[in-house]
């Protein structure tokens, strides 16, 4: 149940419908916008929301999706039922274009069934025979005219018409040239057509000089249009052939229309499918315009909005270069009712409307401008009481109209109701209005309904203190500058700041003082206490935010330290493993040589020469595997005696951490630390722990890397293509693929490559180009030649 009857106008949803219609491509989608209604069935609503979210992803991907020729053919398609009727060439042309769009949509969903499963379910209900499109395309050309070869008879007729017309024009031109040379025709005149027949313009005074039939005269009466007698028979022949052509065209169109008749049921489903596609596409396009997302939909009564924005206010402020203040609010069984107070023009009503509009949009199958981690439940009843509802026709005052709404609210309220009431209790004498409002609120509370209320009344603000499941909220106010901040703060009531605002507006101090005395010291002190509590809470929030920031920084530092430590330990294990492996090989070789020497000595029976030779061989091997003095010194004190390159460490330098052999590349340099790349690991290290490497040493390291990967480079060079296809990829996937592709191109020495991203709405093209422009090695980005793909392909010049 939706109350009151003009709910959509009061909440602003009528404007949402207008925006959706603007996003539709045709009247097909617009007709569904008009039929869109409030839903409370969880599975059906979830399906509609998922379809919209999937279409949003299609648009964001940049993948081509048919976006034209969503034509409504309902005005003439049913004529196919009438025997002997036929569609015109223009009607068949519209049918051809729209059928092609339907077939392209079907093909898209068949291709991406796994990616867009909910949208694919729409396609499953459509069984359209492609032969009908082919039959129409075989007869109707791309200009909407019947093809010459639509039938052999038509081809012969048109060929005859062409021949006769050529002869006719030749005869008439000859007569016209002669008349023109004789001065019988007006200057700058030419052969023209009257009643479908070729005629020549002749000055009135020379009409008897040209034999023929007069068809028309000019507005001034000075020129006559005469069909020469020599052309009369040929004009008649052309006219007869044109009649014959028309009869053949009707015959062909009638036969073609008969082919449509058996497919009417399938066509009806197909065009309903096309209308739904246009509608869902409009919803997706509108969601991108208002930064809307799919929240978590839950099958229970609750509402958690994180950083929500009023969509219409957002669009309005964007035109002025401003941003709308977001709203975060939470309603659940533990906190069912929120009472918002605060100064006038502080944003209370906007907050109320935002909550109501977003819930109504969601239950109409629309994505909402709130963070994806928002949680939205389903309500069966939505009630709103907002604005001046005075009714002249029914002789109702504003307050009486409010009371009438309250009566309906109380009659229909239950635990599946969300009610929204603005300026609760106003419109009559405050004491009575406040009392009635509190009593009504008690009944709504007993009905276990959910709701949001805005008020200035203290007894309504105090309601939250007396009843569980009710929260106070306040619109923030800058006390120093006496201006609203339009931010909702949950947990405490707000002051109206009436005295402060009056003083700022220039009301005399004596008047303000008198007002304070009339209000009473206790009430004034109550407002002061609220303000003081607000200041204290904001101060504590800032301190808590600072502490959380420091905790996050500490966690990040610990994480980086652990990653660096793990990396170094892994390097250490690798070095020890390699050393052990080499040592084992040396020992095995030594044992082998010793055994060989012993065997040779035994076989020679310890001959002096052989024994001496064996000993020399062992000494030579010992010398080979024993480190030299320089190598030992280098090995034991290499870290201490490392010759550091001169100059300050800058981005792009190669460095080594003191006491370690690991070499890294400097990515960025700060005041006291630098971000370096160690293998695949990024880490921040203090500058005083780094030693700068010379370029020669860096080159040696690069050569080692190159040597190790030369085989891979040859393979990459052999298989490299100068174009990468990112169509159908998500934005993140496309960026990763393009990034890797550009890296390979640079390494392999290519100066120009291309990225195939498709046209679509141009979103993927823009994202890729914006990403590539940040790199210095990308010299230019431009569209491919139109014949080779145009703006669906980006040419990248590297250097």
From TrEMBL:
**Any one GO biological process:** rescue of stalled ribosome
Q: Name one GO molecular function term.
A: rRNA binding
* Region span, Disordered: 621-645, 693-712
InterPro entries assigned: DNA_mismatch_repair_MutS_C, DNA_mismatch_repair_MutS_core, DNA_mismatch_repair_MutS_sf, MSSS, MutS, MutS2, P-loop_NTPase, Smr_dom
Identify the domain of life: Bacteria
Classification via SMART domains: MUTSac, MUTSd, SMR
* SUPFAM superfamilies found in the cross-reference section: DNA repair protein MutS, domain III, P-loop containing nucleoside triphosphate hydrolases, SMR domain-like
Coiled-coil regions listed in the entry:
530-614
Residue numbers binding ATP: 342-349
Q: Does the keyword DNA repair apply?
A: no
Listed A to Z, the keywords are:
ATP-binding, Coiled coil, DNA-binding, Endonuclease, Hydrolase, Nuclease, Nucleotide-binding, RNA-binding, rRNA-binding
User: Entry's Gene3D superfamilies?
Assistant: 3.30.1370.110, P-loop containing nucleotide triphosphate hydrolases
Which E.C. number(s) belong to this protein?
3.1.-.-, 3.6.4.-
Which Pfam families does the entry link to? MSSS (PF20297), MutS_V (PF00488), Smr (PF01713)
Enzyme's top EC category: hydrolase
The UniProt record lists the Smr domain at: 724-799
Per the record, the similarity remark reads: Belongs to the DNA mismatch repair MutS family. MutS2 subfamily.
What binding partners and quaternary form does the record give?
A: Homodimer. Binds to stalled ribosomes, contacting rRNA.
Q: Which PANTHER family match?
A: OS10G0509000 PROTEIN, OS10G0509000 PROTEIN-RELATED
Listed name of the protein? Endonuclease MutS2
Q: Organism, per UniProt? A: Marivirga atlantica
